[in-house]
Design a protein that fits this description.
Elements (H helix, E strand, L loop, with lengths): L2 E4 L1 E4 L2 E7 L18 H21 L3 H14 L2 H13 L5 H17 L4 H5 L1 H16 L11 E5 L4 H6 L4 E6 L7 H9 L3 E3 L13 E5 L4 E4 L3 H4 L6 H6 L14 E6 L2 H9 L5 E4 L14 H14 L5 E4 L13 H7 L9 H14 L5 E5 L5 H15 L7 E5 L2 H5 L1 H4 L5 E4 L1 H9 L16 H17 L3 E3 L10 H7 L3 E4 L4 H10 L2 H8 L1
Parallel strand pairs: 3-4, 4-5, 5-6, 9-10, 9-16, 10-11, 11-12, 12-13, 13-14, 14-15
Antiparallel strand pairs: 1-8, 2-6, 3-7, 7-8
Length: 523
C-alpha cells in the first residue's frame, strides 16, 4: 500500500528512487572525552571542511552554492559561538561537549526562528548544521556516504552541504524542517533536485531502500508508489530509463526533439544521461538572486564555462538574466519600478554588455544561442543583436531569439518574426498572463496551459512562425504535463524543453501519441 505525505514544495521536479537516511550519524548523546580547550579547534576544523567544499564549487562556477557554504564556514568561525560553548562547559564541568555544542546551536537557532523575515528564519538551519559538523569533529565520526546509484535523501533537516557533498548520488530530498527560502532549497533548485519539506515526522520511519516518489512541484512524497503514481502511463522509472535509446517519435511518425531546462553542470550531465539532444533553456539568473549588484562579466563566465564544457557538441539556448515577476533581487527592484516593463536587463546597458561579453567568450567553440525573456517589441531583440555584433568584433554572432510569454508578445508577432532567429514559448508566464494569475498564485500550475485561452495563443504562435519559417520550441513546465503535451503535439510543437528529471516520462508519452488524435483523446 502506498502512503502519501503532503509538505511544502521547495524545488521542482519529479524523482523516484530508494530512500536513504544519514540519521545514524547525527550525534546527539555520544559522550566526548574532550576539554573546553579543544572546542575552538573543532569549530575551526568544521570551517576548514566547509571552505574546502566551497572552493570546489567556486572552481566549477557554482558561485551561489559556494557562497552558501562560506556563510556556514563564517558561522563556524564566529568566536561568540565557540566561546559560548566553552562558557557552558566551564560552568558545568560534567556537561558533555557534544551536547553543549548542540544546545548552544539550538539557542541561537531559536533566536533566528523568532525573527519576522523568512530569509533570516531559514538561517536557523545553517546554525544547527554547523553545530552538527562541530560535533562530528569532536567525536571523530564521519557521516555515512549514500550508496552507489541515486537515492532520495530523507532527514529531519536537510541542509545545503548535505546536497552539495553528495549531489551525484541524489535523485531528490525530503526534509521535516525548512522552507522554500532555505539555503537547502536554493541549492536544490540550482542542482535540479526535487525537494519537499515540512512533511510529517512519521516519514522518518521509512526504511532505507524503500521506494519513494518526490514531487517537488506539488509538495508531495509517496512511500511505495504504485507504478501508475510514479510515472506516465504506469511504466516504472527503471523501464523508462531503459527506453532512453529509443527515439522520441510519435506512433504516427512525428519526430520530437527533447531538450532540457538547466541551471548547473550537474543538471547538464543529468540531461545528457537522460537522452537530451541539447539545452533549450539555460537559466542564468538563479545564482544571482541573492546578490546586491549586477553580475560582472567574470561572474557570468565562471557560471557558463563549466556548463558549456559538459555540453560540448550540443546546442545550448542561454536565456539572458530574467529578473521579473517572482524573481526580483533587491538591487533590481528600483530599476524595474522606473522601467515599468521587462526585459529589465535592457534598461541596464553595462549589465547587459557584461552578460553578452561572457556569452561570447565562454561560448566560443560551442553551439550557443541567446534568448531574450519577456519580449514584446522588435526593438528589444534588435538592441541585443546590435550589442552582440559590436562586442563580437567580427567573430560569430550567436542567433538571437524571443521568449514568448505574454499576449502582448503574441499580438506583436508580425513585428517580432522578422528580427527573431527562433522563438521559445514560456508556458509558465504565458499561462499566468493570459489567465490573469499572479506567478506566485498556488492555483497556477502547468495543467492550466490546457485551457482554450492559452492553447489559442500557442497555436497562433506556431501558425505564424511556421509561415515565416522560424523554429519554435516550448520550454515551460506544461511541456512535461501529461494532459498538455498531447495538445501541444497536436498543435504542431516538435521541440520541447523540460527538466532533466522529466525527460524519460516525456519521451514515453510522446511515443504513445498519434498526433492526429491527441486532442480528441486528451482534450
Amino acid at each position: 500500500m502506498s502512503t502519501t505525505y503532503e509538505g511544502v514544495a521547495c524545488s521542482g521536479g519529479l524523482a523516484t528512487a530508494p530512500a536513504w537516511s544519514p540519521r545514524a550519524s547525527v550525534v546527539t548523546t555520544v559522550a566526548v572525552d574532550a576539554s573546553p580547550a579543544s572546542v575552538p579547534a573543532a569549530f575551526e576544523a568544521a570551517a576548514v571542511r566547509l571552505l574546502a567544499l566551497a572552493s570546489s564549487y567556486r572552481r566549477n562556477g557554482a558561485t551561489a552554492s559556494a557562497d552558501i557554504l562560506e556563510t556556514e564556514a563564517f558561522i563556524a568561525r564566529d568566536p561568540t559561538f565557540a566561546a559560548e560553548v566553552v562558557s557552558d562547559l566551564t560552568a558545568a564541568p560534567g556537561l558533555d561537549p557534544a551536547a553543549a555544542v548542540l544546545q548552544v546551536a539550538q539557542r541561537h537557532a531559536t533566536v533566528m526562528e523568532g525573527l519576522a523575515a523568512d530569509g533570516l528564519r531559514e538561517r536557523a538551519a545553517d546554525i544547527r548544521e554547523v553545530g552538527r559538523r562541530v560535533v562530528d569533529e569532536l567525536t571523530g565520526r564521519a557521516r555515512p556516504v549514500p550508496p552507489d546509484g541515486h537515492v532520495i535523501l530523507v532527514d529531519e533537516e536537510v541542509c545545503a552541504p548535505d546536497l552539495l557533498e553528495f549531489a551525484d548520488r541524489l535523485a531528490g530530498a525530503v526534509s521535516l524542517r525548512g522552507g522554500a527560502s532555505s539555503h537547502a532549497a536554493i541549492v536544490a533548485r540550482s542542482l535540479g533536485l526535487p525537494l519537499v519539506s515540512q512533511v510529517d515526522a512519521a516519514l522518518l520511519s521509512t526504511r532505507d531502500g524503500v521506494l519513494l516518489e518526490v514531487d517537488g512541484d506539488a509538495g508531495r512524497v509517496v512511500v511505495g508508489p504504485a507504478p501508475a503514481l510514479s510515472v506516465v502511463g504506469g511504466t516504472s522509472a527503471a523501464a523508462l530509463a531503459l527506453a532512453r535509446s529509443l527515439p522520441a517519435t510519435t506512433a504516427d511518425g512525428v519526430d520530437v526533439a527533447l531538450l532540457a531546462n538547466i541551471a548547473s553542470p550537474l543538471e547538464a550531465r543529468r540531461a545528457l544521461d537522460a537522452g537530451a539532444s541539447g539545452v533549450g533553456l539555460l537559466r542564468t539568473e538563479l545564482l544571482f538572486l541573492d546578490g546586491d549588484t549586477w553580475p560582472t562579466t567574470e561572474q557570468h563566465e565562471a557560471q557558463l564555462r563549466p556548463i558549456l564544457e559538459v555540453l560540448t557538441g550540443h546546442p545550448v539556448v542561454i536565456r539572458l538574466l530574467d529578473f521579473s515577476n517572482d524573481k526580483v533581487p533587491a538591487f533590481v527592484q528600483p530599476l524595474l519600478t522606473a522601467w515599468g516593463t521587462a526585459p529589465v536587463l535592457l534598461a541596464a546597458p553595462e549589465a547587459l554588455d557584461a552578460q553578452l561579453r561572457a556569452i561570447l567568450a565562454a561560448g566560443r567553440g560551442h553551439d550557443v544561442r541567446v534568448l531574450v525573456p519577456m519580449v514584446t517589441q522588435p526593438e528589444e531583440l534588435a538592441l541585443v543583436r546590435a550589442r552582440l555584433t559590436e562586442l563580437a568584433g567580427g567573430h560569430r554572432v550567436p542567433p538571437v531569439g524571443a521568449m514568448i510569454e505574454s499576449p502582448d508578445a503574441v499580438d506583436n508577432l508580425a513585428a517580432l518574426l522578422p528580427v527573431a532567429d527562433f522563438l521559445s514559448i514560456g508556458t509558465n508566464d504565458l499561462t499566468a498572463t493570459t489567465l490573469a494569475f499572479e506567478r506566485s498564485d498556488p492555483r497556477l500550475g502547468p495543467a492550466l496551459a490546457a485551457r482554450a485561452e492559452v492553447m489559442t495563443q500557442v497555436e497562433l504562435v506556431l501558425r505564424e512562425a511556421s509561415a515565416y519559417g522560424t523554429p519554435v520550441s516550448v520550454c515551460g513546465d506544461a511541456a512535461a504535463d501529461a494532459a498538455v503535451l498531447p495538445l501541444l503535439l497536436e498543435a504542431g510543437v516538435t521541440t520541447v524543453s523540460v527538466a532533466p528529471s522529466r525527460l524519460d516520462a516525456v519521451r514515453a508519452l510522446v511515443r504513445e501519441q498519434s498526433v492526429r488524435t491527441a486532442g480528441a483523446r486528451h482534450g
